[in-house]
Amino acid sequence: MNEFDLQNLTSYQTATQVENELSLQRYVAAVMRKVYSKMCVGLLLTALTSWLVLSSQTLLTLFFSNQIVFWVLFAAELGLVIYLSARIDKLSEGVAATMFYAYSVLTGITLTPIFLVYTGSSIAMTFAITAGTFGAMSLFGYFTKQDLSKFGSILFMALLGLIVCTLVNLFLHSSTMDWIISIAGVLIFVGLTAWDTQAIKRMAAASDQTALSKVATMGALTLYLDFINLFLYLLRFFGSSRD
């Protein structure tokens, strides 16, 4: 092989590598668009469900006049998200997506009381702040070259600590601890939004076409949970009581 052939081979390999990289980037971008689309549909279903329940005295009475009914709904919501997260690899694409949307509807029901506690304008303002914060951190997670995986264990431990502190404060009723929990909750879910986005991007890059829908559903559920939790913690700061 002469020098000219070697140069041509090197150029061919480089061009092939570049084309493969571009194809991978296009595929990952397509998966992420599907992730965000499903997440937005889930948020829309949650908002629509809350509005429908809020506008019906019959539904309000059905779901919230009896604490047992509410706790059954909450248990079903928790069980559904745990089952979906654990079994998504064994579920069909249609079943996984249906379960995600069902979870979004259940969340809409259980979140309805916030519309009875806070003013509509403060909820709308908090939603806008949440959307802006979530969008900025998700974009950071998507485009940053920094490896965020090292923060995953830290954020997970912080989340466990947050849950424990929240449960403890149910008995202590400490307003100071409540503020600390709220601040920590915002910081944790801001960090998780960036970390989860990068993790989903990597998961998409490692998947193939046959797993596209499942990756999109799992990614949508993950970011949906980040958005909802960030919204609820921010609402503690920006929500105005109806009283």
Q: How far apart, in Å, are the first and last alpha carbons?
A: 84 Å
Give the C-alpha Rg: 22 Å
- Domains, number: 1
Estimated share of beta-strand residues: under 5%
Low-confidence stretches: none
SSE series: HHHHHHHHH
Helix content bin = over 70%
List keywords for this structure.
243 residues; mainly alpha
Structure, described:
This protein is mostly helical and 243 residues long. It has helices at 3-54, 57-64, 67-87, 93-110, 113-117, 120-143, 152-172, 175-206, 212-238. It has one domain (29-238). The termini are far apart.
How would the blueprint of this fold be written?
Layout: H1 3-54, H2 57-64, H3 67-87, H4 93-110, H5 113-117, H6 120-143, H7 152-172, H8 175-206, H9 212-238
Helix pairs in contact: 1-4, 1-8, 1-9, 3-4, 4-9, 6-8, 6-9, 7-8, 8-9
